[in-house]
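Q: what sequence does this backbone want?
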């Protein structure tokens, strides 16, 4: 899976319910279920170009939601803090781990 596909998959997890049902389902089939444009087009009774256009519009909307709300960026930041804390714990640096966990809790 391409990096962009992973990002869109994550954005779908956060904002997918804000899309129209058709957009959400089409994107889930394309990004999560790994169906081709032709397979989706056949299932939906539309053209491949129609599927492609739907996916592009949905991707733009998902990126717009992220730009406005920043939930994915916040999640990734919190995930990095948790990983740092875990690393500090495995290195017996409990004070450093405690600081990272406190920052993480504060951000939540």
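A:
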């Amino acid at each position: 899976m391409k990096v962009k596909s992973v990002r869109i998959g994550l954005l779908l997890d956060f904002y997918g319910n804000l899309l129209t049902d058709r957009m959400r389902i089409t994107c889930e089939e394309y990004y999560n279920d790994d169906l081709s444009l032709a397979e989706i087009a056949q299932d939906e009774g539309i053209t491949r170009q129609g599927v492609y256009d739907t996916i592009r519009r949905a991707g733009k909307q998902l990126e717009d939601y992220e730009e406005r709300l920043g939930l994915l960026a916040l999640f990734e930041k919190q995930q990095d803090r948790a990983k740092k804390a875990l690393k500090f714990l495995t290195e017996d640096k409990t004070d450093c781990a405690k600081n990272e966990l406190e920052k993480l809790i504060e951000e939540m």
